Records
---
Amino acid sequence: MEKLGINAFQLLAQGVNFLILMFVLKKFLLKPLLALLEKRKASISEQIKAEEDLSKRIKDTERKDQAVLKQAKLKADEIIKQAQVLARKEAVEILAATRQESKKILARADMDAKLEFRKSQARLQTMVIKEAAVLANRALAEVLSKEDQKKITEVQIAKLVKGEEYV
């Protein structure tokens, strides 16, 4: 080998140096580097798992939110329906009360109108009696004396007031 320019002792020393270098690099550089890479891999895998868990939680929360919203909507619809039924019921009651009140008002107005009619009738009757007395006095003034006129007039007025027939 010497002819080729290779020194066996030097080659052996370089081989031993290479093996020592490999041992030192493996022990002090490769193992810590592999341990660091394993820690990084574990950390990344934990982060991925945490992300997946978080994604599941978010999806579960969204499903729960949707269910709660759906339930709330159903409850709101139910409340609205109950309010509408109650409003209709109250409207019917108010309408019935209003009709009853209007009947009372009409009955009161009818009674007031009848009372007013009777009062007007009584006033008219009084006016007719007075006019009749005046006409009777004029007619009797030509035929009877003042005392006779007065007596007859008083008797006839008394009869008219009592409702007796006129003779």
---
Amino acid sequence: MVVKTLSRTPIKEITVSDIIEEMQRKDSLLTPSAAEVASVKPSGTNSVQIQMKAVQRTWVREIRDEKDTTEYIMPVGFDRRIEAQKTVQFLLGRADGIQIRVNGKDLGVLGKADEIVVRLVVGSDGIIEKRLKKSTKPSHASGDSPGQR
């Protein structure tokens, strides 16, 4: 009888920061130039108008009115305008990467360089919910996610 042993390859644990970093590398070529202004408008009446400006290169996931999901990279200087009927939810790779205005009210940046915005819900009156998480990356690294400077 012949017994074969399978070689076991170690499994590498991947953090959320690693996933975001990999997505940013892949999306870099697809990101519009910083001179462009992106605008997204839903059909119907709008009650939430958001203006975003990237102050650090940042990965963003947005969900407009709990149904339209978009992911993208905002390079430094890039402006984006979003309109929704009720709410917009965000996940941001850097809490210090985006300046946000909601219906003309300046909310500034949402956190520190070593934080990720794991949930931000914005309505017509401003922030409804905001949850931050410390990044697992060391602060001496360089990149798009929090703590990668």
---
Amino acid sequence: MTVKAILTDIEGTTSSIAFVFEVLFPYAQKHLPDYVRACAAQDPHSPLLQAVRVEAQELDADTERLIAILANWMEQDVKATSLKTLQGLVWQQGYSSGEIKGHVYPDAVSALQAWQQQGYRLYVYSSGSVQAQKLIFGYSSAGDLTPLFSGYFDTTSGHKREQTSYTNIAQALGLPAEQILFLSDVLEELDAAYAAGMRTCGLVRAGGVLAGHLNVSSFADIDPQAFN
């Protein structure tokens, strides 16, 4: 079946892992505590903070305990949806102020632009919140890239190493899984997408092998028609 949509990961695929760990995470670690305190001061029953309590299973946690929970989650790189939402809100401030510029590899920018012009529908699937995804592309060093994408998916669709997540996304797109090409640098994600019926391509920018999938080191080496 002909590929009609391309679904891409961000970290390590369109964007540098170093950007996430050396820029985004430190910014969130520095500014998230004050953001949480401000939320609590404005609304002690803030849905944002209540979501952290529910996910942490600590319904009586006070503000400082919430900050400690979030700090631990960040240190452990826990894919908690409430954390990702709060991180996205904090990053919004950094992007808006110009302190942060989203990193997107030039080869990814060129390929995504070309694919959209060729009629492919482009989507993003990342463990970061949809808001965070829109920020990295909307405030990228190459300008606002959000017009390239038809939609975004995060962990509300399921975790990235689970087959059902990709089935859910295919259903949301209204396409057979076989018409979707998924790009990632993580073997378990590629395996899950393949198990759901998607076409797959592994990005190995720093070398290595993602066994069982076509491997490329650059978006420039990807030809969606080759998967038909």
---
Amino acid sequence: MASLATIAASVKSIFADKVVELVDTGSELTLVIRAADLLVVADTLRDHPQLKFEQLIDLCGMDYLHYGNGRHEGLRYAVVYHLLSVSSNHRLRLKVFATDDEFPVVDSVVGIWPSANWFEREAFDLFGIMFPGHPDLRRILTDYGFIGHPFRKDFPLSGFVEVRYDPDQKRVVYQPVSIEPRETVPRVVREAHYGDVE
């Protein structure tokens, strides 16, 4: 099994100019690249004899709006890939930021790792990230008529519409949300010197 430092050195030498950032936390390695380089880098990560990341074990969307209490300066949407080298028993996190915050687009990696299929559909459904090249990009978790993308940080907690069965019409109907917004954080009242040791 190669050490994290060895994998980091290989990644730096193989991808040189394509590395935006390479973060080694001591237990995990995260490679950040540009969206334009994704397919070339992904293909190399899978096939290069020093890397051999044959398996995509997870893919998720990220919304960096208000991330770090507003300290994040940069693009809003990212796609994060968790890769596993079965033959070498090491892992890598790959992160790609979509270049347009209004219409986030990141190339599909289904042709490289087929397991990305439903993961990309989930990121599309929940975050609105488009994946050109995906064979069947459509919603996977929300209803067919659902409006918006519920994991975006600016999506309202109560949503836009609610669904109910109407016995008069004998069908399911959509109507504007009737839930009143309320504070859901429990209020804690403590004595003035609660917990003080005298």
